[in-house]
């Protein structure tokens, strides 16, 4: 099996770093700076303070890559349309693109270009932070679950490959409950850490912040129930706070985006709850407010007052 990873950000780099010794892999990324760094010095991954470098081919040009069986899509939501075009060029006939991205709506963007039979979804809890072009820090090897659709055999092959590479992985026939479970955790953590500019742990340790997590999560759970989703979380608020505690020192991906001045995934996370809420007649005023605040943060980035 030949795999291409679309996106050499935090998640794509960590996956590529692990898979490279066990399978043929290429990283495809829109940023020449990332690709140049990976090709010049290898992909460098830090774990528990130790840095290891691995040589992995990287390119900005999908036409230069031999056709692959699987494309793992790990870009941020803002680049999903580019990832769909890139996957269309990379995949063999019968090849499948799996989205490992946060939030809702990415699979639909990929499906519009590739067709639903060539798009799968996976949910990952791998923790990673991009330190710079070609440099990534692994925070934790949480499990990755591949959806059984559209190809059970490819899903099993991917899970096997991940496990051989030291990354816990499995296959699920009910991925939707995991997708929504992760969405709800992201709804509770990402926007609030970006607005408050705190590491994840502050949401669990500061009661005033935990109360805001509760409001965001309770609205999202009401929307999930109205959508008929059986959530994989028994107590969504407690489990969201437990993830915040377990990743206490991490900066959420949305806080990292805001600090870099990059577009965030607010539309596919809290925005998805607002959209689904409207469709199903469930009010989501707190998530609407979070969306407006994060959009204002994105838009005012150039005007931000510098720390003395
Ligand atoms: O997006 C993220 O940062 C992560 O999914 C999570 C779980 C919130 C941890 O930082």
TrEMBL record:
Q: In which pathway does it act?
A: Cofactor biosynthesis; (R)-pantothenate biosynthesis; (R)-pantoate from 3-methyl-2-oxobutanoate: step 2/2
According to UniProt, the name of this protein is: 2-dehydropantoate 2-reductase
The record's keywords, sorted A to Z, are: NADP, Oxidoreductase, Pantothenate biosynthesis
Swiss-Prot/TrEMBL catalytic activity = (R)-pantoate + NADP(+) = 2-dehydropantoate + NADPH + H(+)
Q: Where is the Ketopantoate reductase N-terminal domain?
A: 3-150
The Gene Ontology CC terms held by the record are: cytoplasm
Keyword NADP on this protein?
yes
Residues annotated as signal peptide: none
Family statement drawn from the similarity comment of this UniProt entry: Belongs to the ketopantoate reductase family.
From the UniProt record, which GO molecular function terms apply?
Answer: 2-dehydropantoate 2-reductase activity; NADP binding
EC number in record: 1.1.1.169
């Amino acid at each position: 099996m030949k795999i291409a990873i679309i996106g050499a950000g935090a998640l794509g780099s960590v996956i590529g770093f692990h898979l490279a010794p066990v399978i043929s892999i290429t990283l495809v990324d829109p940023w020449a700076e990332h690709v140049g760094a990976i090709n010049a010095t290898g992909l460098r991954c830090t774990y528990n303070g130790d840095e290891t470098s691995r040589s992995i081919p990287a390119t900005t040009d999908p036409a230069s890559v031999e056709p692959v069986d699987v494309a793992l899509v790990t870009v941020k939501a803002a680049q999903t349309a580019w990832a769909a075009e890139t996957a269309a060029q990379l995949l063999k006939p019968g090849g499948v693109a799996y989205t490992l991205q946060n939030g809702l709506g990415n699979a639909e963007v990929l499906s519009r270009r590739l067709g639903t039979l060539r798009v799968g979804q996976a949910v990952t809890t791998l923790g990673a932070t991009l330190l710079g072009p070609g440099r990534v820090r692994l925070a934790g090897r949480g499990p990755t679950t591949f959806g059984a659709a559209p190809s059970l055999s490819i899903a099993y092959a991917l899970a096997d490959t991940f496990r051989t590479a030291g990354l816990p992985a499995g296959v699920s026939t009910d991925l939707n409950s995991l997708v929504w479970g992760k969405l709800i955790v992201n709804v509770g953590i990402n926007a609030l850490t970006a607005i408050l500019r705190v590491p994840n742990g502050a949401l669990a340790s500061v009661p005033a912040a935990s109360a805001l997590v509760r409001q965001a999560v309770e609205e999202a759970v009401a929307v999930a129930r109205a959508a008929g989703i059986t959530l994989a979380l028994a107590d969504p608020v407690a489990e969201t706070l437990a993830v915040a505690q377990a990743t206490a020192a991490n900066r959420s991906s949305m806080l990292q985006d805001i600090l870099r001045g990059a577009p965030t995934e607010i539309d596919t996370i809290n925005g998805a709850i607002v959209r689904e809420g409207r469709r199903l007649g469930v009010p989501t005023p707190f998530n609407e407010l979070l969306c407006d605040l994060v959009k204002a943060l994105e838009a005012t980035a150039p005007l931000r007052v510098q720390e003395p």
